[in-house]
Amino acid sequence: MVRYYDYDTPKDKVLNEIRLILISLGYEIDMYAPETHALTTKSTRVRQTIRKYDYVLFVKVSDMIEVQIAAKRSIFRRGSESNLGKYEQIIQQTEDKIPTSLQRKIYHPLQRELKKNKRNNKISFY
């Protein structure tokens, strides 16, 4: 779950623009490292039908802007009444492939904001 964007401005300026866009979209920045041209967001919870997904966005600016999603899925474990309280009821499972509808919910607002600011920061979809 990776998207790539192209840019024509200095790396520091691009990283700061993406940070401001993510903040305007409601993300909280967890780690911002301008010296390595990378940032991560704090975990965000999304509900998809019955399942709940917690995801984090990783942004790395090198020759291209790389936006990557790391996600966990919360699964409710059903058990008998005899083992009630003995085992954890919710299992956290890492996801390699998250549904495309969820990917659209994450990537499309970011892409829309980048298109709005395309003339200013010269970032384009790859």
How is this fold's topology laid out?
Blueprint: E1 2-7, H1 11-24, E2 29-33, E3 38-41, E4 44-48, E5 51-61, E6 65-76, E7 90-95, H2 100-116, H3 118-121, E8 123-125
Antiparallel strand pairs: 1-6, 1-8, 2-3, 3-5, 4-5, 5-6, 6-7
Describe the structure.
The chain is α+β, with helices and mostly antiparallel strands. It contains three helices and eight strands. It has one domain: Alpha-D-Glucose-1,6-Bisphosphate, Chain A, domain 4 (2-Layer Sandwich). The protein has helices at 11-24, 100-116, 118-121; strands at 2-7, 29-33, 38-41, 44-48, 51-61, 65-76, 90-95, 123-125. Strands 1, 2, 3, 4, 5, 6, 7 and 8 form an eight-stranded antiparallel β-sheet that branches. The longest helix has 17 residues, at 100-116. The mean pLDDT is 82.
Provide a short characterization of the protein structure.
This protein has 126 residues and is an alpha+beta fold.
Give the SSE string: EHEEEEEEHHE
CATH class: Alpha Beta
- Beta content comes to 35-45%
What is the typical, i.e. mean, pLDDT?
82
Q: Over all CA atoms, what is the radius of gyration?
A: 18 Å
By secondary-structure content and strand pairing, the structural class works out as alpha+beta
CATH second-level architecture: 2-Layer Sandwich
Number of domains: 1
CATH topology: Alpha-D-Glucose-1,6-Bisphosphate, Chain A, domain 4
How would you sum up the global shape?
Answer: elongated
User: What is the helix tally?
Assistant: 3
Poorly predicted residue ranges: none
Q: Give the tally of β-strands.
A: 8
Q: Give a quick account of the main beta sheet: strands, pairing sense, barrel closure.
A: 8 strands, antiparallel
The protein's oligomeric status is single chain
Helix fraction by DSSP (H/I, runs of at least 4)? 25-40%
| Span between termini | 14 Å
